[in-house]
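Treating backbone geometry as a discrete language has practical consequences that deserve illustration. The amino acid sequence and the backbone structure tokens for this protein are reproduced below.
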Amino acid sequence: MKDALMSSAIETLRTISLRCVECSTLYPGMEAGWKPRYRCDCGGVLDVELAPPTGAKGLRQLFDERASVPPTWPVNTGNILPDHSGVWRYRELILPVPGQYIVSRPEGNTGLYPVGTENCGAGRIGHRHIGSYAGLDHLFLKHEGENPTGSFKDRGMTVGVTMASLLGAQAVACASTGNTSASLASYAAQAGMRGIVFLPAGNVTVGKLAQSLAYGATTIQIDGDFDAAMQLVEQVCNELGIYLLNSLNPYRVEGQKSIGFELLQQLNWQAPDWLVLPAGNLGNTSAIGKAFRQAYQLSLISHMPRFASIQAAGANPFYRSFQQGFTMREPVQAQTVATAIKIGDPVSFTRARRVIEESNGLVEEVTDAEILAAKTIIDRSGLGCEPASAATLAGIRKLVERGVMKRDESVVGVLTGNLLKDTLTGIPQTGENLVVTASIEAVRRVLGQ
């Protein structure tokens, strides 16, 4: 049985191709000797091309049926129910491998919260404050901070580690500003692999660092920024035969497509007018854009939304390029409180540019002050998020004020990380956190104030 399953998995990999996003050169999904390929010979990054699924017209019904099936417990690595994962439910469009090889916690199934002034329920007054702040009647927030390790990275990591497992990898590695490392450490531990993470020293929040250490990853802090760590880990993986799991890995980006499929399913397959998300390494812009493109080509949706990628003003190479009509690409020395998007030379630049261009989208920048102001609104609504996520709301507010977004348009914003990823930045450390004597009189005085 095991040999038959492995043969099935190998046949699946033979149906996959990798195409360079720069020169369009085509490579097999897995080369001779099962050696992974992350870049084209020209240096460009690669995009996964799957054979079109048979019976594409029935995909919407298939996905809806899977979503309605309750999970089987206990869920474990050997007997996972793929349909319960918000990634593997869409496996025909991501990576159609036998369920027994899937490494899943499971992930996905994150909330899509109506927060617009008109589409917010009567009992969600706090959520309505977000819509008022943004200036939109029909606004939804997709909270990827509800994934197992607290960020969207789990969606890509389940696919990346599953591929590593199929290849027989003994170790996996990444460079990270914190979220990728936490996710890699968790999934590597589950698969029994060694996890190795490279972090820019002094630029990773304590919460994210704690996750990597707790899950048992070998944690290497380097004297440099994320971009330096990224260059180093790519060299290490190529020379030492370690499987690389940054968004340079085309299979990891495929997992992140599931954000797009899932939010469309939650909207009953009605695409919004706009999709807005934070932009750092640009993996999400690339992946979600690809998901919507595929959904449109397969007639799962009737139109493509416009994409808006939001960068921090201190880490804005994509924005600068957009302002020049994408005629230039110039890395920057990144500096922002939003550490998850503190990246000056994004790997997925070309893939993300395609999404912006084909959707008639745009790239906007917001200051750290605007990010923290938006974070306060999200936090006080009861949802909460890490600073990078708040760039989404800050960007939406700015685009509405400029008249680019109309008040009555439907907009979905993506929150990428959990509030607990950063328990210091933008969170009041005094004020309502009061210490009083244990007496009713002392409490009366405080509440009276």
